[in-house]
Fold this sequence. Notes:
Elements: E1 6-8, H1 17-23, H2 36-50, E2 56-60, H3 64-73, E3 81-86, H4 89-100, E4 104-109, H5 118-127, E5 133-139, E6 141-142, E7 147-148, H6 151-160, E8 166-170, E9 189-193, E10 205-209, H7 211-215, H8 229-236, H9 247-263, H10 265-286, E11 290-291, E12 303-307, H11 314-325, E13 327-331, E14 340-344, H12 351-367, H13 376-387, H14 400-407
Parallel strand pairs: 1-13, 3-4, 3-5, 5-8, 8-9
Antiparallel strand pairs: 2-10, 6-7, 9-10, 11-12, 12-14, 13-14
Helix pairs in contact: 1-9, 2-9, 5-6, 10-13, 11-12, 12-13
Amino acid sequence: MAGRNFLFVPGPTNVPDRVLRAMVVSMEDHRSPKFPALTNEMMPGLKKVFRTEHGTPFIFPSSGTGCWEAAVTNTLSPGDRVLAARFGQFSHLWIDMCTRLGLDVQIVDCEWGTGVPLQQYADILKADTGHKIKAVLACHNETATGVTSDIAGVREALDEAKHPALLFVDCVSSLGSIDFRFDDWGVDMAVSGSQKGLMLPAGLGILCASQKALAMRESAQMKRAYFDLGDMMTSNATGYFPYTPALSLMYGLVESLKMIEEEGLDNIFARHHYLAEGVRAAVIKGWGLKLCAKEAKWYSDTVSAILVPEGKNGAEVIARAYSRYNVSLGAGLSKVAGKLFRIGHLGDMNEVHLMAAIAGAEMAMLDCGISVTPGSGVAAASEYWRTHQPPSGLLMRGTPNELKESHGTNSLPRSAVVKG
C-alpha cells in the first residue's frame, strides 16, 4: 500500500527520526574500555525521567514484563502476601505473575474503567496490623482501558496506616508521558519499558529501585538468575552489564533522553494532556461515543479506549482501519475485547499527526456501520486544539508575521525555537 502506516497503538510508539539515526551504529565490543562511557550517559538521564535522586535505574534486555519479575523476585519470599487491584489486562497479568511465582496475592477486583481503589487500599492497610502485606502493587496507567491512577494517593494510604510494605508501580505507559515522581511518592520499584514514552523500539526493560527495596535482596528467598539485581549492580558499578546488552537500543536511549531533556518533562506532560483532550473532544463531542474510563478523574493522557455502540464490534473497526486506511489502532483486550478500540497518543506526536488517527478511525467506523457524523471527530478535535493554548513544546516562538518580519522571508525558519 502506498504511503506510510500510521501507528496509533499505545506501544510500540513512533520512533523519532533522530533516534532511528542514533541506533544505526556498528556493533562494538561491550567489554571494551570505552563501553562504560555509554552506560554513564544513560543512567543520569533515566534518573531525571523517574524524577529521583536516590533511586537506582537498571536496564535489562527484556520487556517491561521482565522488570515486573525483577521487582518481585529481588525483594520477596515465597508465600509473602502482596496487595494488588485488578482493573485491566495489565494489572491482571502482574497479578497472574505473582501468583505463578508463589506469592499470596490479596486481590481487589474493580470495575474495568476505574483505577486503584484508594479507600479500599487504605482500609486494608490499616486493618493489616500484623504487617503481613509485604508489597503493594499499583498500575499507574492501565493501557488496556485508558485509566490513570493516583499513585501519590497510594503512598498516602501507606503512610497514614504507618505500613512498611514496599510500593511497586507499573509505569510502562506513563513514564516520560504522564507526571511520575519516584522520590516524592515514595516508590520502591518502578517498572517501565523502552517502547512507550521513551520513543524506542521494544527491547529494553527499565527498572528503578529504592534503597529500601535493594536492601531487601539480602532476605528475599525467591529464586532468581537472569533478573538478579546483585549481578547487575556488580557489573554496572564498573560501567558494564552481566550479559550482552542491547547495544543499538542503548544508543537510541541516549538520544531519546536528550530529546526529553530538550523539551522538558513538564512541557512533555502538558503536551500529552493537550493532545489527549483533543482526542477526547473528538470521541465525546464529535462522535457522541463514550470512553472506557468511567469518570474524568481516570482519563489517561497516553491512550483513549473508545467504546463502540452495543451490537458493533471494535475488532472490525480496527481491521478496517488497518486494511483500508493503513492506520493501526489498539485492540480491546480480555474482558473488553470487541467492545472498544484504542487510540494511543503518546511519544513523538503533534496535533496534525494525531488527526490521522481520528480521521482513520472515523472512516473505519462509518464503513463498519457505526453511525457517526462524517467529519465530526476531526472538527471537534480541531476546535479544541485551535481554541486552546498549546504547551511550549508545540509552539514556535512568535507569530507567523513576527517570524516573517524578523527573518525577511515568507516561510518559517527551520531554526525557530520553542517557547519556554
